[in-house]
Design a protein that fits this description.
The radius of gyration is 46 Å and the shape is elongated. It has 6 helices and 10 strands. The strands form 3 sheets. A 4-stranded antiparallel β-sheet has the order 2-1-5-6, with no helix packed on it. Strands 3-10-7-4 form a 4-stranded antiparallel β-sheet. By secondary structure, it is of the alpha+beta class. About 25% of the residues lie in helices and about 25% in strands.
C-alpha cells in the first residue's frame, strides 16, 4: 500500500509546475485539472466582456450642444397641404350635384312622399298622418311640441327614391312631428327568487312611451335650397 502511494507521488511530481504547491496539498478537483498555467496569466475574453458590461464607457457631451431659451427655439415645420385652404369651403362641400338638380324637381312634383327617419339610430318608415309610438319615453317634451326629424336615409315617392350615404342632407327636406302625449303599458309583475331560499321578491314595472304624429313632409325646391345656403355663407 505504501509503495503504491510513493509511485503515484513520483509520477505526479514529474508534471508538477514549479509555481504550484505540492500535489498532496491541493484539493482533489485541482489534481484533475489539465489547464496549463503560466507565471503571468492573461485575462480571458469572458472576463473582459463582463468588465466592459459592468462599467460602460461614458460618452462625453458634445462641445457644440448648447441650451437655448424657449423664445429662441425654432418652430416645428409642418408639411404644407397640396390644396390651398381658400379653395375648400362649405359651399364646395355642400354643392348640389347634377343628378340632384335634375331629379329633385321630379321627385318634388310627385303627389305623396314617404321618408325613412332615424331616431336614436332606429329607422321608421313614415308618411304624413302616421302615428308613431316610440319604444322609449322622450324626456323634456310636452304634448303640443313640434319636433323636426332631420336624420333620414331615404325619401321617395311612387316613381322616384333618393338614398343617402348613409344619411341625406337635412337642407333638402323638412319633416316635422307633433308630440301627442305619453302612453303607459299595464303594470307588470315579476317574481324573483334565489336558490335554497324561501323569500320571493316581486318586482313591478310600468314603462311609458312617447307618441308622435307626422304633420309635415316637404321636399324643398332648388331656389329655396340655394337661398338658404347663400344666407348661411353670408352670416
Amino acid at each position: 500500500m505504501l509503495s503504491r502511494s510513493v509511485k503515484r507521488l513520483a509520477v505526479e511530481s514529474q508534471w508538477q509546475h514549479p509555481s504550484l504547491p505540492p500535489v498532496f496539498l491541493l484539493p482533489f478537483r485541482a489534481r484533475l485539472s489539465t489547464v496549463s498555467y503560466s507565471s503571468d496569466p492573461e485575462p480571458s475574453l469572458g472576463s473582459i466582456q463582463y468588465a466592459a458590461f459592468d462599467k460602460p464607457e461614458r460618452i462625453p457631451p458634445s462641445s457644440t450642444s448648447k441650451l437655448l431659451p424657449l423664445s429662441q427655439v425654432p418652430p416645428t415645420q409642418h408639411l404644407a397641404s397640396p390644396f390651398p385652404p381658400e379653395t375648400i369651403s362649405a359651399s364646395t362641400q355642400r354643392s348640389l350635384s347634377d343628378s340632384i338638380r335634375t331629379l329633385l324637381p321630379l321627385l318634388r312634383a310627385q303627389p305623396s312622399h314617404y321618408i325613412t327617419a332615424h331616431i336614436h339610430a332606429r329607422p321608421y318608415l313614415l308618411t304624413v298622418g302616421d302615428k308613431l309610438r316610440l319604444p322609449f319615453h322622450m324626456p323634456l317634451v310636452r304634448p303640443g311640441d313640434v319636433l323636426r326629424l332631420n336624420c333620414a336615409s331615404k325619401i321617395g315617392s311612387r316613381d322616384y327614391t333618393m338614398l343617402g350615404a348613409p344619411y341625406l342632407d337635412d337642407s333638402l327636406f323638412e319633416c316635422r312631428a307633433v308630440v301627442v302625449g305619453t302612453e303607459s303599458e299595464p303594470m307588470r309583475f315579476l317574481e324573483k327568487t334565489k336558490r335554497r331560499q324561501r323569500h320571493v321578491k316581486t318586482v313591478k314595472s310600468k314603462h311609458r312611451f312617447t307618441i308622435l304624429t307626422v304633420k309635415e313632409l316637404r321636399i324643398k325646391s332648388l331656389e329655396e335650397i340655394e337661398g338658404e345656403r347663400a344666407e348661411e355663407e353670408a352670416v
